[in-house]
Write a structure and sequence with these properties.
83% of the residues lie in helices and 0% in strands. The termini are far apart.
Length: 126
């Protein structure tokens, strides 16, 4: 490779592709969030016992949503400021790995919260 003093600039098409991917991720997450909120809403209709569990689930969903959207926005901003392709690839790899860890943790926590709510809802009242 000959270095003639010119720097590699990230092409506009690549930035547009990254932005489209970001938009798609945001749309998918919004669909997930809507489904989770609908589920929490239907759980709330089951009675006072379930309301506490649904409230916990709703709070978790909103917390996760806030965290995930903020992480995605931070990632998009870092891509905009990336100086070259290796930096973009590094940022992308870090983002995907972090999101996979985060989503696994969130899914586990949601599963536990939903299980607790279901168990509580089926307990006989004494």
């Amino acid at each position: 490779m000959i270095d003639d003093g010119r720097r590699f600039e990230i092409p506009k098409d690549m930035r547009a592709m990254a932005e489209a991917g970001f938009d798609q991720a945001r749309q998918n997450f919004e669909k997930f969030l809507a489904g989770a909120e609908a589920t929490a809403g239907s759980l709330e209709e089951r009675g006072a016992t379930v309301r506490a569990g649904a409230k916990d689930i709703g709070a978790k969903v909103l917390s996760y949503a806030e965290k995930n959207v903020q992480t995605s926005l931070d990632y998009a901003q870092s891509l905009v400021h990336a100086k070259d392709l290796p930096e973009v690839l590094k940022l992308h790899s870090e983002f995907v790995q972090g999101q996979m860890r985060s989503l696994a943790e969130q899914a586990s926590e949601m599963g536990q919260a939903i299980s607790r709510a279901a168990i509580d809802a089926t307990k006989p009242k004494t």
